[in-house]
Design brief:
alpha/beta; Rossmann fold; 2 domains
C-alpha cells in the first residue's frame, strides 16, 4: 500500500470513529452531539460522560469522581430489545466498611417519554457466575436481553447472560437495572455473598439509572429481584432500610428466586441434605471457595489458610481468572476429591462472619416473595425453608412458593408468571400475600 493510500485509509477510519463516537454520545439520549464534541475528552451529553468502548469501559479512572454512592462515572449506549434503550454504566458504590469502589452494570428502559413521577424500577441481582473480572454478565455481546440459560444448546455464551422476563417488564413500563457487583468487570476481589457489599451495589445501580436523567426516567419506587447469589443480595438490600432511604428510594418488594440466604447453617452442615447430582461435589466446592475468597477480601482478620488446605489453594487462586462453570469442569476433569480442599470446622472468626452474612436475621423494609424448586441441587431447598422460617419471625409478609420438579436453572422460567405478577402488584400498592404460619 502506498503512503498516500494509507493516509487516505487512516483519514477514513478517523472520520468513521469520530462519527461513531458522536452517535454514541447522542444515543445517551440527553441531547445531540457533533463529531467535534465527540472527539473531546471526556465526551459528555448533559453531564453524562461517554465511557470507552470494549474492555476499557471497566477500568475506572485513577480517582473516582466526587459524589455519593450511585454517582454515575460514565455510560455507553448498547443494543437493546425492540422498543427499549440500554446502556452499560459504571458507577460509584461501596464495599462493606464504606470504601468507595467502581461497579459496572446495565440500565434498560422503555423508549419514549417517562411519566412525570418517573418509571418504576426493577433492580435485578444476578446469580453466581464466578470471581474473575471476565465473569461480569454485562461484558458479553448484547447483554441487555431476556435471560439466556447457559445450559441450553442455543446459548452462545459461557455464562448465564440477561435478565429473566426483561421484555415483559419493559412492556409493563419498568426501568430495569442489572449490577455486575463489585469485582466482576471492575478491579478488586469480588466480595461474593458479602451482604453489605452486594446490597450497596444493587441499590446504587438504581441511583445510577436515575442519574441518566429523562432519557431513562427512573423513579423512586423499586422492587428488588434476584436469583441464587442475587436472591441473597436482594434480601440484604431489602434489609438495609437506612441505606435505601438515604438514597431516596422506596423499596416496595423483594423477590428472591432460589436465594443464597442461608450461609451459616448451610456451610456448617446444620441443614438436612437436599437433592444432589453427579456435579454437586465440584459445584459446591467452587461456591465454598468463592465464599472464602470473598469473605477474606471483605474482612482483614480472616486468614484463608484457616479454612482452605494446600490442596485447595490452586483452585482458590483460579477464581481470579476462571468463572465457576469453568473451574467446576477443571475439578471434575482432574478427578480430585473436592473435600480435600477444606479444613473443618471453621474457626470462630469465620463462623461469626458466616452468621453476619446469613439473611433473615433482621426484618426487611418491604414484603418478600421466595421461590424455590424442589429439584434444586445448587441451593438446598431445606436451607431456603430455614431462611423463610427466620423471615417469618418479623412483621413483613413473606410468600413462599415451592415448584415441584423445578431445578436451579429452570426456576427463573418456571416461576416467571408468578413473580412478574407479584412485582406488578407491589407497584400497584396492593396488599402482599403471606403464607407464614400464624404466630
Amino acid at each position: 500500500m502506498s503512503w498516500e493510500a494509507g493516509a487516505r485509509r487512516r483519514a477514513r477510519g478517523a472520520a468513521t470513529a469520530a462519527t461513531a463516537a458522536a452517535v454514541a454520545v447522542a444515543a445517551l439520549g440527553i441531547g445531540a452531539a457533533s463529531a467535534t464534541a465527540a472527539r473531546a475528552a471526556p465526551r459528555r451529553a448533559a453531564g453524562v460522560v461517554l465511557g470507552p468502548a470494549g474492555k476499557a469501559f471497566y477500568d475506572p479512572p485513577p480517582r473516582l469522581p466526587a459524589g455519593r454512592p450511585g454517582t454515575l462515572i460514565w455510560a455507553r449506549p448498547i443494543e437493546a430489545p425492540k422498543g427499549a434503550r440500554a446502556w452499560k454504566v459504571l458507577y460509584k458504590s461501596t464495599v462493606v466498611g464504606g470504601r468507595a469502589v467502581a461497579v459496572s452494570g446495565l440500565v434498560i428502559a422503555p423508549a419514549g417519554r417517562a411519566p412525570r413521577k418517573g418509571r418504576p424500577v426493577v433492580a435485578w441481582a444476578h446469580g453466581t457466575l464466578g470471581g474473575a473480572r471476565s465473569c461480569a454478565p454485562s461484558m458479553p455481546g448484547n447483554p441487555a436481553r431476556d435471560l439466556t440459560d447457559y445450559y441450553t444448546y442455543s446459548s452462545p455464551y459461557t455464562i448465564d447472560v440477561g435478565v429473566p422476563a426483561l421484555t415483559r417488564m419493559l412492556r409493563a413500563g419498568y426501568v430495569v437495572t442489572a449490577t455486575d457487583y463489585q469485582g466482576l468487570g471492575t478491579p478488586g476481589v469480588h466480595q461474593y455473598t458479602v451482604g453489605a457489599t452486594e446490597a450497596a451495589n444493587v441499590l446504587d445501580s438504581v441511583t445510577a439509572a436515575r442519574a441518566l436523567g429523562s432519557s431513562v426516567g427512573a423513579g423512586a419506587n423499586v422492587v428488588l429481584l434476584g436469583w441464587s447469589q442475587g436472591g441473597g443480595a436482594a434480601i440484604f438490600a431489602g434489609q438495609t432500610s437506612a441505606a435505601a432511604a438515604s438514597k431516596g428510594l422506596r423499596v416496595r418488594g423483594i423477590a428472591a428466586l432460589a436465594p443464597a440466604a442461608n450461609t451459616a447453617p448451610d456451610i456448617e452442615d446444620r441443614v438436612a441434605p437436599g437433592p444432589t447430582s453427579s456435579l454437586s461435589p465440584s459445584v459446591t466446592a467452587v461456591q465454598e471457595l468463592n465464599l472464602y475468597r470473598g469473605l477474606a477480601a471483605a474482612y482483614p482478620e480472616l486468614n484463608v489458610s484457616d479454612v482452605v488446605t494446600a490442596a485447595g489453594m490452586a483452585p482458590l487462586r483460579a477464581l481470579g481468572n476462571q468463572c465457576t462453570i469453568h473451574l467446576g469442569d477443571v475439578i471434575q476433569e482432574l478427578e480430585v476429591d473436592p473435600e480435600t480442599f477444606f479444613r473443618r470446622p471453621a474457626p470462630a472468626a469465620w463462623r461469626t462472619r458466616f452468621e453476619q452474612n446469613t439473611a433473615g436475621n433482621q426484618t426487611t423494609v418491604a414484603p418478600v416473595l421466595v421461590i424455590q424448586g424442589t429439584a434444586d441441587t445448587v441451593v438446598n431447598p431445606n436451607g431456603t425453608t430455614q431462611y423463610v422460617g427466620r423471615a417469618c419471625g418479623f412483621r413483613q409478609p413473606v410468600q413462599y412458593s415451592v415448584y415441584q420438579g423445578a431445578n436451579h436453572q429452570t426456576i427463573p422460567f418456571a416461576a416467571q408468571s408468578e413473580y412478574v405478577a407479584w412485582i406488578a402488584d407491589r407497584f400497584a400498592g396492593k396488599s402482599a400475600p403471606s403464607n407464614c404460619p400464624a404466630p
